[in-house]
Design goal:
single chain; 229 residues; alpha+beta; SH3 type barrels; endopeptidase fold (from Nostoc punctiforme); 3 domains; six-stranded antiparallel β-sheet; three-stranded antiparallel β-sheet; 5 helices
Length: 229
């Protein structure tokens, strides 16, 4: 297994920079190296997504002991929320204890975690606080709590158990629309990385605004996360 040397690495659909960003890997996330190339190499991430990353950012994966609760920056590297770290890496990057959680500590609430990222820019293919897309945002939150869900919204929809109506929805459920997903916070509120505000924002689904009315026209399902991949 391998990791990247930088805080966040793009996974491209083809071994060229101009190709589509399919997803991202953050520091310390493990992946398989499928094909090694001079400029780009084909990898497969833990959520089964395949894509090309720059070969020169691939490194060996040390045993991890911690995950990062808060963004950490040094002159060498900028580490986003959800990075995974060995004891040696914690010492190397001088990461304070209050930014760290034990890698096996999954006692976190996805809804409370989500509010820390209000205003983070929307980024197609993004899975970090440098920029999220809708499915990358909810996937990152759930992964921090120890639950790996699929990468794209359609696969997430198929992975979750159906909740019949909003009256039965609870905070932490996922709300699916055509090509979009958000995290339900309760009381009709949903937090999501979205193109409408070009950021992570909270919208009320029943405020009868033009945007919420539009979302109802493309609504597909309420899904409950009950298992990991």
């Amino acid at each position: 297994m391998y990791q990247i040397r930088i805080g966040v690495g793009d996974m491209r659909s083809k071994p060229v920079f101009e190709s589509e960003r399919q997803s991202q890997i953050v520091y310390g996330e493990k992946f398989e190296l499928l094909e090694s190339g001079e400029s780009y190499s084909l990898i497969q991430s833990e959520d089964h997504v395949k894509g090309y990353v720059k070969t020169n950012i691939i490194a060996e994966l040390p045993e991890k002991a911690f995950k990062l609760k808060k963004f950490h920056s040094t002159p060498e590297i900028k580490l986003p929320f959800g990075s995974y770290l060995s004891r040696e890496e914690v010492e190397k990057y001088k990461i304070p204890k209050n930014k760290l959680a034990n890698i096996s500590d999954n006692n976190y609430n996805v809804c409370e975690l989500s509010k820390e990222f209000m205003g983070v820019p929307y980024l197609w293919g993004g899975t970090s606080e440098f920029g999220y897309d809708c499915s990358g945002f909810v996937q990152r939150l759930y992964k921090f709590t120890g639950i790996q869900i699929p990468r794209n919204s359609n696969s997430q929809k198929n992975h979750t158990e159906t909740v019949d109506k909003f009256e039965d929805a609870v905070p932490g459920d996922l709300v699916f629309f055509k090509g979009h997903v958000g995290l339900y916070l309760g009381d009709g509120n949903m937090i999501h990385a979205n193109g409408n505000s070009a950021s992570v924002s909270i919208n009320n689904l029943f405020d009868e605004s033009k945007y919420s009315n539009y979302l109802h026209t493309i609504f597909e399902k309420i899904g409950r996360v009950t298992k990991s991949l």
